[in-house]
Amino acid sequence: MNKSLNEAKWVNSYTHSLSPDPSSENHPREVQEHYSWVKPTRVPDPKLLLWNTQLGNQMALEKPLSTSELFYYSGNEQPRQAKPFAQNYGGHQFGHWANQLGDGRAITLGEITKEGQSWEIQLKGSGATPYSRRGDGKAVLRSSLREFYASELNYNLGVATTRALALVETGESVIRDLFYDGNPKEEPGAVLTRISSSFIRFGSFELFSYRRERDKAQKLFNYVLEKFYPNLIQNDNPVELFFETICTRTAHLIADWMRYGFVHGVMNTDNMSILGQTIDYGPYAWIEDFSLSFTPNTTDLPGRRYCYGRQPYIAQWNLERLAISLKDLGLTTEGFQKGIESYQKIFSEKNKKDFSLKLGFEKKLSEDEELKLQLFSLLENLEIDFTLFFRLLSKIIKKEIDSASFLQKSSYKKITETDLDTLNFWLKAYQNRMLKEERSIEDISLNMKKVNPAIIYRNYMTHLICEDLSQGTLNRAEELFAIIQDPFNEKWESTNWFIKRPDWANQTPGCTMLSCSS
Ligand code: AMP
Ligand code: MG
Q1: Which residues are CB-contacts of 15 (< 8 A; sequence separation ≥ 6)?
Q2: Closest ligand 1 atom to 266 CA
Q3: Å from CA of 271 to ligand 2 middle
């Protein structure tokens, strides 16, 4: 039986185990401790837009139907046993140490537990905290919708991630300058309920290391180890194993991003989870017209530090920052090297295997890497949609479509004869390689559809949903939620969503690129 948030079993292990800021004043400042007590800000007219029944059932939480229940998810009221707080952490932003950052627009209500599992419940966009610096701590509906869909899509693709339980419109406008071009606009505000067993980041360790606060770093480490890595405690060198485990998890995470074309957009060390999950969805995108140098983040444009092709390298750079902060806790040079080597090995092996499976190859042949390299330049030169390419490839091999209609459905370019020849040339080599699988085309195509989703979440979809919501309808929002919960299902191929980004979206702000402004 599902229950109200008020009747859940609360344990609040983070606040029990770590040190609170002695001041409960809520104004921007430097905080020496692990977290600050802070209450969410009330909102004028909360409305529930989306509820994640699947996750609610896992957590044994009922959908908030009454106003008093909804108030827990809008921040207007708190469950009796909740002990709301904002985390303190630092981070490297765009390659530079940024000092204290912390939860500037997220407040954790506390942690609930059921049958040995536990979840932190966090309200994102619920008002200012001591870490809000110059921000208002609020979030706009557009970005909250994006985080809701993206985190749930990643979950259903099998990519480690924080999750989204509820999305509430606040009835209040929030002012944002979408392109930092001096044209601020009022937009509807929202509060997203995010769920994870922990929101601790690489930057949580970095902050106390930079401040030379060894005791606080040790306390944080003890908590993380006991709560999330208990099997490492008995070991002679838990910090080494801890680092290696995070390296392993991060390798899996980044390989998963690469296989589905997910570009996080802001891989600062404060946005890297110590559980190896995707965290803090900002200006992310699933790549459309393929390019290794694609970044969805306008702020990242000058250097493209966080572009698709650099994600594996940046994750390693971030792991190196984490390692430096673990030095005081006993991480040796050997431990550091061991972790980084594991990261490189696991990422590289998984990445190769994932792309082979995307192409329908189960055998490992020496010619495969060359074929993949040729594929990347083909995708880039012909401006082909990454998701549609692999999904339609499983149709082309069954001769359900020909190469001309394949290009017409998947390329953003005005197609020439030469383009078609280029594609056909690659397809010929690909089909020759396929013969060496010695499996039926039927079987290959079926397996390809299990690893290549029919649908990913695209920015233009946010635009359509926001348009619907301004007219008071949730039809497309709910339809899309159903789709992203089952992204490999063949039935979506016959819907209007199985298309490349429509032309109108190229001219619509926020449909091809985004800023961090949310
Ligand atoms: P991000 O790169 O979006 O993860 O954010 C970096 C830092 O800025 C974090 O400490 C956030 O909590 C903070 N931040 C971002 N947006 C806001 C906002 N609207 N109000 C307050 N703090 C914010
Ligand atoms: Mg962040």
Answers
A1: 35, 83, 85, 110
A2: 2
A3: 5
Single-letter residue type at 237: N
SS3 121: strand
Report H helices in 172-304. Answer: 202-210, 214-228, 238-260
pLDDT of residue 518: 57
Q: Which residues line ligand 1 (CB under 6 A)?
A: 101-105, 131-132, 135-138, 266, 268, 271, 280, 282, 516
pLDDT in tens, 375-387: 999 999 999 999 9
Pocket perturbation via mutation, ligand 1, pick of 88, 132, 140, 299 by most ligand atoms within 8 A of CB: 132
Residues 320, 250: Cα–Cα separation, whole Å:
12
Taking the centre of ligand 1 as the mean of its atom positions, its distance from the CA of residue 140, in whole angstroms, is 13
Angle between helices 333-358 and 368-381 (to 10 degrees): 70
**Number of CB atoms found within 10 A of residue 369's CB:** 13
Among 373, 375, 385, 266, residue whose Cα is nearest residue 315 = 266
Whether the CB-CB separation of 173 and 186 falls below 8 Å is answered with: yes
What is the H or E stretch that residue 332 is in?
none
**Which two three-digit tokens encode residue 66?**
């009454």
Q: Taking Cα atoms as reference points, which of 342, 393, 43 lies closest to residue 189?
A: 43
Residue nearest to atom 6 of ligand 1 (CA): 101
Q: Residues 267, 204, 252, CA angle at the centre, nearest 5°?
A: 45
- pLDDT given at position 181: 78
DSSP 8-class letter at 40: P
Mean pLDDT by 10 residues, the chain (518 residues): 96 98 96 98 98 98 98 98 98 98 98 96 98 96 97 98 98 86 90 98 98 98 97 93 98 98 98 98 97 96 96 98 97 98 98 98 96 97 98 95 96 96 97 96 97 97 94 95 98 97 88 72
Ligand 1 centre to CA of 118 (Å) is 26
Ligand found nearest the CA of 124: 1
Q: Hey, which residues are catalytic here?
A: 270
**pTM for the full model?**
0.97
